[in-house]
Amino acid sequence: MSFLEALTQGVNSFFLLYMLAYSSVLFLSVIVGVAQIARRSELIEMRNSFRHEYYVPITIIVPAHNEELTVVDTVLSLLSQNYRLYEIIVVDDGSTDGTAQRLIEHFQMECVQRPIRRRVPCKEVVSVFETQGQKVPLTLIQKQNGGKADALNMGINASKYPYFIAMDADSVLDDALEAIAKYVLEDDRTVAVGGLVRIANGAVLKNGKLVSYRLPKNLWAMLQVMEYDRSFLASRMFFDLFNGNLIISGAFGLFKKETVIQAGGYDTNTMGEDMELVIRLHEYCRASRLPYSIKYASDAVCWSQAPSTLGDLRKQRRRWHIGMFQSIAKHRSLILNPKFGPVGTFSFLYYILFELLSPLIQVVGLAFVGVAYYLGMVNVPFMLAYYLWSLLFGAVLSIAAFFTRVFTFRTKLPKGDYLKAVLVCILENFGYRQLIALFSLSGIIGYRKYSKNWGRIQRTRFGGDEKGASA
Fold it and tell me: Which of 16-20, 63-67, 72-76, 434-438 has the lowest mean pLDDT?
């Protein structure tokens, strides 16, 4: 047997075992997710879930850079929350469009002199606007451009409450404050809680409230609906069982302010500030021997806009993968380190094998399958059967995740959308996942070129057609 044949056989064997292991973990994760959601739904129906008349004081921080199309809708959705004790701080991170002006005019805000104590590093304040004409205090801080992490640090410095929520300026909350805050009330060791992010493309808002929803007409956005539902149902809920979550989406997460400050705030030198902060909280709490918990709230829903063009989708996934690489590389001392419990021995290993290296393994594996076919080393019927089985398996898991979300949250969809969802769950296995792998891989291959380039993503009004761009 030649060296090439031996290499090809070895790579193909590894690839098959890898795909089998990944499918097994994904299957287990989805089963756990479905079971967890079913249990929580039963508790709500039986009225045994946690009920209270107490409220955790929360500051909602909304970093915004060139978000004039969506920022007013986002703030309106926050003002409509059924929650008693919170404030809203929008941090305009050096926008060059009308983001600040739209807020000032719509909410009749006035410029004030307000000192801000810097407990975590951030760029200089340019001006501060406030209004007392709303149900809760609303503040707008204009600052020098420093990036999303820097804007979040500014919001932390300006906040007056012990917990804060970080969310994007192109997102709206589905009356989710009480749902996410209850995890802190149930367990005072909780230092962070991640919410469920769903795709807002196709959502129609009225005065900040979601009034109707259907699957997006745009194919790229529709494919992401299935991807998001599967991802949040599977990995987030599975890792939640052993306090092993490494990611809380930047679109919606609750944090204990003092713990974040002690850990150093957001890192302004990474493109994945959300993942990096969560890993650092694990590291800080374990190194300091502090009892802590990082949770996932599957019933706290945030609707966030997804890229609707192939170019924007490529930028987003490239950025996400670079951010993951930076976070894992920075905290590589946790890898297989028993001192950090399941986070080091399992979570890090999972993210390295099935997230960070997955695009490379998929691309190389498929390439060597082609080489094996050329050398006549492939059992074609077996390979086709195995590949079709894996695609069908992935489609079934996606369908299960999507319909679990639909029926759990009683989302009303047009009848045609149910059939469309099934077809899209099948379609995403034939090209979309492979395309995402290539986009992610390009981030690592072009790391030097893209690691400082955030990229501009096109936005639309909620339920409208007006378009713009945002960093």
Answer: 16-20
Tell me the whole-structure pTM to 2 decimals: 0.90
Instruction: Give the separation between CA 76 and CA 252, rounded to whole angstroms.
Output: 16
> How far is residue 355 from each of residues 23, 48, 125, 271, 328, measured CA to CA in Å?
13, 37, 38, 16, 11
Query: Could you give the dihedral angle defined by the CA atoms of residues 291, 297, 301 and 307, in that order, rounded to the nearest 10 degrees?
Result: 80
Q: How confident is the model at residue 202 (pLDDT cuts 50, 70, 90)?
A: confident
Alpha carbon 302 to its chain centroid, in Å, reads: 10
392/50: higher pLDDT: 392
End-to-end CA distance of the chain: 53
Residues in CB range of 413: below 8 A, 6 or more apart: 213, 214, 215, 406
In whole angstroms, give the CA distance from residue 408 to residue 254. Answer: 23
Confidence of residue 45 (pLDDT cuts 50, 70, 90): low
Q: What is the DSSP letter of 323?
A: H
CA angle 225, 227, 228 (to 5 degrees): 70
| 190-199 and 457-460 beta bridge pairing | unpaired
- Contact in structure between 137 and 30 (CB atoms under 8 Å): no
- Cα(361)–Cα(353) distance, rounded to whole angstroms? 9
CB 211 within 8 A of CB 204: yes
